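Incident log, support desk, overnight shift.

02:14 A customer reports that sequence design results differ from what the structure should imply. Their input is reproduced verbatim below. On-call engineer (initials T.W.) acknowledged and began investigating.
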């Protein structure tokens, strides 16, 4: 099978490596000419995944037209750029496997909704779950959710994407798989703040559990199934990113908790912390749907410069309520 990967950040590069290791013919589109050169000449992505030694079989390109022969396309640019990139490529009815985690600012669309609007002829699948790119590229054991409405395509893609250390679990709940990945990034920022401000491990566990409750409320309001949210793409990814400084979202939160301004940390980054972009649009959408998301509200306030102590006190002073 010929696989085209759109986006050569850390995750696109790791997925290209998995596919190439499985013997697939892989073409990887990178936006940055220096990334194309680094992959083709030194078999390394020096900018976004510097420690991984890549298969020489991966061919990098800066021209989306070079993906014209691919049988399936993995879409791995950050969520805010998916719409623009899909407008530029002729997908010609080929399956799109959507791998970004986020909600589009302005439109409040999930990535599958963007793709369905921009490329209504393309069959869609979502790949999501607890997957730090550097671990996947190193061949460490990883399980993911692969969601697709079409059972035939779902099984075919699962067969192709599975590897000795990458195990996809199939689902037909596309929206559910996406909600988990988008919301956990926001909650990971909150957990990072707890860590950076030294609020303790009890507080972090509370944020994970209450965050999961609000992820579930929001997901159900958007048509997700609760069982998907408690699977790899929801709870699984929440646990991963809320407990590790390998997470860019968690690290951003640590910086905020230590008192550094979010805006300057974001301006200094080349890599993406999707939660910073998803948080405001998630808050807007939750409010519009009447879903209570206090942790998300808190993260938005902190990104806007609110004081950590004041936000912590406000969360603790909320009216008492039943847990369920
Ligand atoms: N890194 C990871 O471990 C994982 C990342 N993801 C998701 O994959 C998506 C991509 O993230 P990473 O590969 O980590 O990115 P990254 O942070 O490693 O690199 C940034 C990426 O953004 C791209 N970019 C910047 N401006 C752009 C524009 N205007 N148009 C198109 N692309 C642009 C860059 O070319 C680069 O590919 C995100 O939604 C992320 O949440 C999902 C699972 C794991
Ligand atoms: O989505 C991820 C792991 O599943 C990566 O998390 P970060 O974007 O926070 O690094």
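02:41 Re-run completed on a clean worker. Output:
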């Amino acid at each position: 099978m010929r696989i085209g990967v759109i986006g050569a950040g850390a995750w696109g590069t790791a997925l290209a490596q998995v596919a190439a290791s499985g013997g697939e013919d892989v073409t990887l589109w990178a936006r940055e000419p220096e990334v194309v050169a680094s992959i083709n000449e030194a078999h390394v992505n020096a900018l976004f995944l510097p420690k991984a030694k890549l298969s020489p079989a991966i061919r990098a390109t800066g021209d989306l037209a070079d993906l014209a022969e691919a049988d399936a396309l993995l879409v791995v640019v950050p969520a805010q750029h998916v719409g623009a990139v899909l407008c530029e490529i002729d997908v010609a009815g080929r399956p799109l496997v959507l791998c970004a985690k986020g909600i589009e600012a302005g439109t409040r669309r999930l990535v599958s909704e963007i793709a369905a609007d921009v490329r209504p002829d393309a069959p869609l699948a979502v790949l999501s779950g607890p997957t730090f790119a550097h671990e996947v590229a190193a061949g460490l054991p990883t399980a993911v959710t692969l969601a697709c409405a079409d059972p035939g395509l779902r099984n075919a893609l699962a067969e192709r994407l599975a590897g000795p250390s990458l195990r996809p679990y199939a689902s037909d709940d596309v929206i559910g798989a996406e909600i988990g990945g988008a919301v956990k990034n926001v909650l990971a920022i909150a957990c990072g703040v707890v860590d950076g401000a030294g609020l303790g491990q009890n507080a972090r566990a509370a944020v994970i559990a209450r965050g999961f409750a609000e992820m579930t409320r929001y997901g159900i309001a958007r048509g997700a199934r609760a069982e998907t949210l408690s699977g790899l793409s929801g709870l699984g990814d929440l646990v991963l990113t809320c407990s590790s400084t390998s997470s860019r979202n968690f690290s951003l939160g640590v910086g905020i908790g230590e008192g550094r301004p979010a805006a300057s940390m974001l301006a200094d980054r080349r890599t993406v912390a999707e939660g910073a972009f998803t948080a405001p649009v998630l808050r807007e959408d939750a409010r519009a749907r009447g879903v209570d998301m206090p942790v998300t509200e808190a993260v938005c306030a902190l990104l806007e410069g609110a004081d950590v102590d004041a936000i912590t006190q406000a969360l603790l002073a909320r009216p008492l309520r039943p847990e369920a």
